[in-house]
Design brief:
By secondary structure, this protein is α/β, with parallel strands linked by helices. The protein contains 16 helices and 11 strands.
Length: about 350
Amino acid sequence: MSKETKEVEEQCRDFRKKFDSLRSEIGKVIVGHEDIVDNVLICLFCDGHVLLEGVPGLGKTLLVRTLSSVFSLEFRRIQFTPDLMPADIIGTNIVMEDQATGRRQFEFQRGPIFGQIILADEINRATPKTQSAMLEAMQEHSVTSGGQVRKLPEPFMVLATQNPIEQEGTYPLPEAQLDRFFFKVLVPYSDRRELRTIIDRTTTGADPQAESVLDAEQIIQAQDLVRHVVIAEHVQDYAIRLVLATHPQGEFAAETTNRFVRFGSSPRAVQALVLSGKVRAMLDERYHVSFSDIECSVLPAMRHRILLNFEGQAEGVTTDDVLKQVLESTPKALEQKLDVP
């Protein structure tokens, strides 16, 4: 075994240990929802953002606060309301007076977007104009105000929440903004055992706290390591065909796609599948991506990137239903290889 191979294996083991430590610390505060915690952590190490969907009271906000604790990152909360303006998020130029000289000048006052872990609480409550203020921040990790571009601190992650039930007075997120979320994670109700643990922790005076595990520099190093994980051409092609299978009337379109889908997933979907697959490979202490690593991320990576047609909506079909059929009908390997120039 070469020295380089040993170093790679050691890096994978170290990554797994750190990930397990993060799970353990978050588990001191968050009861259950292991898959949700894993998906959120995967998004962070892929330098992505998460949309958490669930009814109120399921611990979405607590999860975000806990993340900022275990990562020693700057936490900012933005409560989205119909009267929220873009300047309330980005910041604005205000007139400041020098006490010594009496001279006045404009000075930029930073908004809450200048954090590292951003909770966009009930993001669909704000108007489209205000929602659009998040687009540049989520994609370029920068904001533009007064003609000047200002970079956001790294690492930077947006965790947005929305309530799927109460839709009065809401503004559904446009496809362009949904596409900027790496994962859309559905937060379910807690089960009987989890509810008992929640009661024991919250009604007996106990106040569990999560300790810091990683700092900003270590997170950035881990993000760089993830991108160097190897993915074979045939596994990469599988991820590509899964995305193409959501395109109606396309070469690889699934039967359910042709019937119920209006628009399929964008190229960001295959990027999410590959990057999350690399993280999952490292969690299994491997330095190469497998088919199963790709399959595990199909639902969270693609459920918000598919737009159903009228028939799909009338039949009560969900995007998860479509994706499950896509997984069943898409072969893992093809005899015909892709010619790359």
